[in-house]
Structure prediction request, 132 residues.
Amino acid sequence: MTASMNPIALACTLVLGVLLFGFGPVISVTRGRTNTLYGFSADPADRLHKLIRAHANTAEYAPFLAVLFLYLGAHNPADWVVWTMVAATAFRCLFVLGMVAPKTMAVPNPARFFGALGTYVTGTALCVALVL
Prediction:
């Protein structure tokens, strides 16, 4: 017997994948336009710097969140778990927006703060859901 996958878990995993793999081409094009083949400027206002940092942070959190989404989504998750997946996905998107949209990363901003905080809270809640 095969488990039925929750479609919301799949959709949230898709969004994380788009965030992660969508940065690659954007960074490559930006590298080409700025003729920066290696590394990036230390200037927190530099577009390439912001894109690379947002991609790196996404690469740190998205894979494990995707594993949680897919595992929990295949095991008839409670409604609160499904809503937590949606919230975690929204917080990751908010964090990315808070990294790339402002003029500089040198100044804290609410999108980045709440995106990070929300990721920590929802990620922890999903880990708790594993043991419940």
About this structure: The chain has one domain: 7-131. Residues 7-34 form the longest helix (28 residues). The two ends are 23 Å apart (CA to CA).
